[in-house]
Amino acid sequence: MAPPFASPTPASSPSSESPPPGSIAAWRIFLRFIGALLAVVIFTYWAAAGANTGFTKDKIALKKTDEVTGIEFVEYQDHFLPGIEFLAAGTGLGLALIAITFFRKKTKHTS
């Protein structure tokens, strides 16, 4: 039995800064969740907005026909249509957030 004046062991100390070996820190779990959520939200928005495989457009062309002459003409309407680079940037950012959680701080072992 340990004497009542003995200091607690470092493993049982509630003020230890690093989690026990084999566990994941809460900020790593949080960043992985945010990264995955960002990638899914960006993909869902891109797919719902039309899944444009070209570049992002801020105007779309609408073909209309003149009622009197029957001539077709193009009219441009303001409309945001996210392109493939929007999808790549958003998904890449989400995956980068996930990837940085796998890098661990190197600890120095002194002997």
TrEMBL record:
Keywords, sorted A to Z: Membrane, Transmembrane, Transmembrane helix
Region Disordered: which residues?
A: 1-21
Transmembrane feature ranges: 29-48, 86-103
Tell me the protein's name: Uncharacterized protein
Q: Which organism is it from?
A: Nibricoccus aquaticus
